[in-house]
Amino acid sequence: MPKKYQGSADLDKFVVNGGKRLRGRVTISGAKNAAVAILPAVLLADGPCIIENVPDISDVNAMISALKILGADIKQLKKNTFSIDPTGVKSYVVSKEMAQGMRASSYFLGALLGCMRRAKVAPPGGCEIGLRPIDQHIKGFEALGARVTIEQGMVVAKAEKLGGCSVYLDVVSVGATVNIMLAAAKARGMTIIENAAREPHIVDLANFLNSMGADIMGAGTSVIKIRGVQHLKGTNYSIIPDQIEAGTYMVAAAATKGDVLICNVTPKHLESITAKLRETGVTVEEGDECVRVRMDSRPGKCNVKTMPHPGFPTDMQPQFATLLSISNGTSIVTEGVWDSRFRYAEQLTFMGADIQVDGKSAVITGVKSLKGASVKANDLRAGAAMIIAGLIADGTTEIEDIEYIDRGYECLVEKFSSLGADIKRVSDYDTINQLKAN
Ligand code: EPU
User: Fold this and answer.
1) pTM recorded for the entire structure
2) Residue tagged active-site, from 49, 127, 290, 302
3) SS3 call for 29
4) 3.65.10.10, 3.90.1310.10, 3.40.50.2300, 2.30.110.10: which CATH number matches 32-238?
């Protein structure tokens, strides 16, 4: 993450007065992880694209800024809708400054390689949740015919021409699947990705590319076939709702013994979260594009293991563990995707939770309630967990390092406040000025 500097929003914190039951209706924004794949994919188009339901979050805004620096002509048509014309893009370099703080900068490798046959991209930043190698991305690019080197700390990929290939991913990787799809969409011939990731955002990217004229089959299964085409045209596309933002509000509703209608969601994408919530005794009713989550007692215990889609998402692990921290019993949570995703556990213990972490598992013995404390967001989803903990806790919780949370949750204060939460964003400078005034 960028260094904090005086006057920066990085010094803001969230202050939550807990104990309010969440009630009402909340509308979910466009999916972060689909947006950060679709925006660079626009580079492959021969004309302007109009993208709707783009979430206003810092990861996406960083990507839009990077596209502008590359030379794309971008206009915001209205809130969450952008017109992006990539035809003026001449540069294939994504500098360290452009890549900083966003993991998905690596998608510029696949997109630029696909449209210009070369790319020079600074290594991705992003949340610290374990080693984040890109060996499988590189394996895919090389199979397509590119030469990939590291030069002065930048990843450089070049190809005379790209040709269809078969790639078997050694680990199920969202990023590698996206990047290979981007590089292969305009390659010559058929590319087959085996052991591909099946997340909803992979399907969304495939639908977007197909709406530009690509020929991609099998997205959503573990074998994706991409028949390269010569041209991709501009298109209009609306990004799917954010499965993880929705899951976060579902868990927050359950944890506060609330009753919340969560709108603009695809219930099918939430199945694993719904199933686990039901296991703890939460009532989840599914509508066409909404889910209603109700709870009026302490949740029951439940074991969870995170896995690639359709398994329980790793990006919901910290939030769900927070719910289990006040459950009636002992639960085991096992992380099956990232090496280091329990750093939030220590913060929860500051609030009175009983969590013992041992390697990739955490044993959580439910306590009756949490107590407000000063905590920090270790990463994006850890930050979401701290918000939920603050909503449950007796007293006041202050959450620092919230720039992580800004990466993935649009209008968080407004949305939680509209459900009756007592949450505000406070700048340290406001506090200092207030003290000076008194
Ligand atoms: N991996 C490798 N080699 C690779 C790529 C991945 O070994 O070349 C390993 C990773 O170390 C990890 C596992 O494979 O253990 C899965 O990594 P993946 O590539 O699927 O993750 P990613 O593409 O870097 C995306 C999301 C993450 C989410 C993971 C898993 C985006 C921009 N990020 O990351 O989202 O946790 O998939 O679902 O799509 C978040 O939104 O908070 C977030 C971290």
Assistant:
1) 0.95
2) 127
3) coil
4) 3.65.10.10
